[in-house]
Specification:
four-stranded antiparallel beta sheet, disordered N terminus, six-stranded mixed beta sheet, 3 domains, 380 residues, Nucleotidyltransferase, domain 5, 11 helices
Length: 380
Amino acid sequence: MPVNRRPRLVGISLVLALVMAGSGALTGPVAVASDVHLSLRPWLGLAASAARFLPGLTGALQAIVGPSSIDYGSDGRLTILVVGSDYRPGHGGERLDAVMVATVNPVTHQMAAVSIPRDTGMLPLPDPNDTWKGKVNSMYAHYKRIGLGTREDALDRMREAIAYALDIEIDYVAFARFTGFDFLVDQLGTVPVDIPLEIRDKRIWDSSGLAPGALFLAGNDVELGGESAAKCHATPKPINWANVPPCYHALPYVRSRHGLVGTKNNNNYKRDLRQQHFLMAAVARVVAMVTADSTSLNTLRDAALTRMADFNDFYTTLPISDDADLLALFVLFNGAQDQPFLQVTLKPRKYAYHVPGTRKYALKLDAVRALTHEWFAPVE
């Protein structure tokens, strides 16, 4: 059956008309004086609706809004260290539940994520005088403890160490504690996630006032929420799973590593992959929100900047305060929706081995770097 091309052609015509009529009736190649800086708001919806079938438009919009300050490094790609901390008041310590490196090729929009499991230790370090000897989930706390002074300094030291171990460039860092993660999810309303297999975790705590345990039912586009979601809980021991209410709180979903996934044991590695899936689902949610309402990205940005200024539970070095940077990030991740998502956790036996006499695992650097050299290769 022939495909009807008319709607797409009409869409392109409307886009061209908007570009021709917008911002002083620009015609031909879009050009503005270097000291002109126009607001993102009138243009973002246009980018959302047109970027996939009119690639040249995004460059024109970037010229209108202004140049982006995003640093793609010498490899030409955007790579971010994503760190999730288990810190909460009254519990002490600050271990990492997530250590993930995500990358996007700005030309092909191919996105990939690599997770380093929590029990990984003995990472090669760029500084021969570095005293860190623990598991990767203790790295951030170590760098804070040895007197680097600030969260920013400790995260930057960790960024350098992970980049060195994986033999890649890492451009930016994103960090969230429990409350920061909940806050970010709440800004999205909910995040629709595909849960292929039911999860039963009798050990996870979602609230000190409720019995531990969480049940996630299998399903497509399961809406998971943040702090506003009901806290997950089980029933007094022994747990009768038939009487446990299903959980829709995103935080225990990305933290769960005990119990069963389907009929098989849950573990750290399944959790890593779940975190990667959730990251992509959150990106898709942002794209959908902005496509429906272009002002929502400004709202999300403003909320994130306010949170970073007022709390210690969320932080990123990504440039998000400028409209041009926001447009560039949106276009980058919008394009990633059309590409396969590459994902892996560096688990035994292919990528790691058990260190005898310890509870640590060490990376097989040849295998790991063969992978990262492929997935994080410089952009041609």
